[in-house]
């Protein structure tokens, strides 16, 4: 065998050896890069903005979360998850809604878009909650009465099961009131969450619904512009002033616990 | 340049014969700074009671009073001659395609085809049919409701194709319960025009859904409740029919459903005809 052929064969053997070692490493790197690309801008924003209102001191509580049953008939099924739920209704609501947004293990059971983010959550003294979601909730929820209804039902039923203080829910998209969720479901009103919670003054009472009936809407008891307006009345016996919001604390910003806020107002 | 700043504002004069004056549309003539109003007279409603005239399809541009300031008033129902008109609403259109399937199926196109078949089925039953759109336009929710609210003796059916649901099933929706509120003059606000018709809508919805369930296995047996935006401002018995779904691989699967859907709607509306009454509110003292 000629000398140059030996050199070529030897070179090829070395190349194969190097390739056998390097290609698995390259493949792993490509997989990691692909995963990073899947992380959308919304997901990145969620990581930056999402409060993780977990108080390690809180005991673990069985939360009930409502996701799609996954059989295509528009029904929901509940799943239990142990969470360190706060006793503060606003924090508690944020915890369960963020868990709902994170989604179930089975993607087919997801009711809300993966990119949707809960931007803010308020609770008015009359039991009206205002949940402000990112635009992804409107743009990525599949268009249709059934799909939009499932999305809203999963939110209202999860709140009903875990936060008794919430009686009605107003949904905003990026701080604004929108006419529909994705072309069908009316978001100009409020959705009935719980009629058994806090007593509501008759002037702003929500329509009563038969037990087990799906959430209904009435005309906005929440402000139409997306800016929470003063509540017309206060709960009897409540020390909370009309129009006061109990707002979720933002990380790094001055915020008082809801309980302290109420005490301060009572002193005034 | 004409700017349409209002549409279908009906003013009811409660005194006298109960006739109504309707401003079909009013426009701002921007260049000369003039306001142009186009008026049309409307036949008085079939009642001797001014209250009934005030109650039937009384759209208003804005709520006249906040809901909490308005007394709740009892509802009555009086028989009314003739359900003759069906307003069909093919949803979406124009720049709004509605639900879109992977095979390029667009809800706005499919519902037009369904509407054509429903129209033929209804006309064969002796109904006059009015459509909210004929082609690829996209009237607003209020414009579509205005077409229905301008009719006397009509029901409203809005047609949709879903993104989800078991393929080959059809669901009927009626609007979520709204509290009954009127202003001091007994008028129902435009935003709650569906309120007095909720019971009738439920009855119509159940009839149509029952027929659909017989034809399309897996469909619910009774109408469901949802806060459908289009229904809220419609002052007539109103239902939304949603077909599943745009995710079918072959559009022919949906096309095959059209005759059954059309026949169910037409038969359901015909069965509803004897029940058709117009609910009225008895104006009470605040």
Distance between the termini of chain B: 45 Å
Low-confidence stretches of chain B: 1-80, 282-286
Largest sheet of chain B: 6 strands, mixed
> Can you tell me the residue ranges of chain A where pLDDT is under 50 for at least 5 consecutive residues?
197-268
| CATH homologous superfamily heading of the largest domain in chain B | Zn-dependent exopeptidases
Query: Strand order of the main beta sheet of chain B, please?
Result: 6-5-7-10-8-9
CATH structural architecture of the largest domain in chain B: 3-Layer(aba) Sandwich
Radius of gyration of chain A: 25 Å
What shape does the CA trace of chain B take?
globular
Amount of helix of chain B: 25-40%
Mean pLDDT of chain B: 76
Structure description:
The complex is a heterodimer of chains A (268) and B (286). By secondary structure, chain A is an alpha+beta fold. In chain A, α3 (89-102) crosses α5. Chain A has helices at residues 3-38, 41-49, 89-102, 136-140, 145-162, 258-267; strands at residues 61-68, 76-83, 118-123, 128-133, 168-173, 190-192, 217-218, 246-247. The termini of chain A are far apart. The longest helix of chain A is centred in the N-terminal third of the chain and has 36 residues, at 3-38. Chain A has one domain. Chain B folds into two domains: 1-44, no CATH class; 85-280, Aminopeptidase (3-Layer(aba) Sandwich), CATH 3.40.630. Chain B is 26% helix and 26% strand. Chain B is built from seven helices and eleven strands. Chain B has helices spanning 50-55, 107-124, 141-149, 198-215, 229-232, 251-255, 258-272; strands at 2-12, 20-29, 34-42, 75-79, 85-90, 128-131, 154-161, 170-175, 224-226, 238-243, 277-281. In chain B, β5 (85-90), α2 (107-124) and β6 form a beta-alpha-beta unit. The chains are: A alpha+beta (268), B alpha/beta (286). The A-B interface holds A 71-74, 142-147, 149-150, 152, 179-180, 183-186, 188-189, 191, 203-204, 206-207, 209, 213-219, 232 and B 63, 67-68, 91-92, 96, 98-100, 107, 141, 160-166, 171, 173, 176-179, 191-192, 218, 224-230, 232, 240, 242, 244-245.
